[in-house]
Amino acid sequence: MTAPAQPESLVDDDLVLVRAAQAGDLDAFDQLITRHQSTMTSMLHRFSANRADLEDMVQETFVRAWRALPQWRPDKPFLHWLKRIAANIGLEFCRKHQRSPFSRLVQPTDESHPLDHIASEADATSASDAFASAQFILSHLPPEDRALLTLLHLEQMPLNDIAAHFGWSKVNAKVKAFRARQRLKTILTRHGYALA
Fold first, then answer.
1. Cβ atoms 21, 87 nearer than 8 A
2. pTM to 2 decimals?
3. C-alpha 195 chain-centroid distance
4. Each residue's pLDDT tens digit in the chain (196 positions)?
5. Contact, 149 vs 134, CB < 8 A?
6. How far apart are CA 2 and CA 91, in angstroms?
7. Would you say the C-alpha torsion 185, 187, 190, 192 has a positive or negative sign?
8. DSSP category for residue 45
């Protein structure tokens, strides 16, 4: 199966803009910010729902991206590279704020598994409720587990890329993912979610 034309076009457009930005073109970098800001906001919302913190993390993502732009290489898509920067910022935020960023949320009463409907966009209200449920559950995990599972399952980043980002071996990443899933399973059971 071939990849859709639109994502390929987006990647090609990113390459042109990144090359221009690397040459010092601020307008090109502004276009990259405009293009990817909503994606970064959506991703970082999983680390903090507080608007001010979220805006700070998104801004910091692009500041770090600008500073590191000379090191970017086209062997990985720009968006993937940007997501790695954002994930690192989200993890730093969680480590800095040891208290859960979602501690003010009330435990969901919905009987369904909180992660089952997270990708469904059919009903915005139920998708929002499922997202809040997922945030509540993930908030009980240690920051590293939360970041790992967020990237792996919610952002669908390949485990090899996550391992490279955190400086882990592939085997170590698999072990950490297994343990994080086990801790998540324990938390889900404790909060009354029936697992199949």
1. no
2. 0.58
3. 24
4. 333 333 555 556 789 999 999 999 999 999 999 999 999 998 888 787 788 998 999 999 999 999 999 988 888 789 989 988 998 898 888 777 754 444 433 344 444 444 444 444 444 455 556 666 666 777 778 888 888 888 888 778 888 888 887 888 989 989 988 998 888 888 888 767 665 5
5. no
6. 34
7. negative
8. T
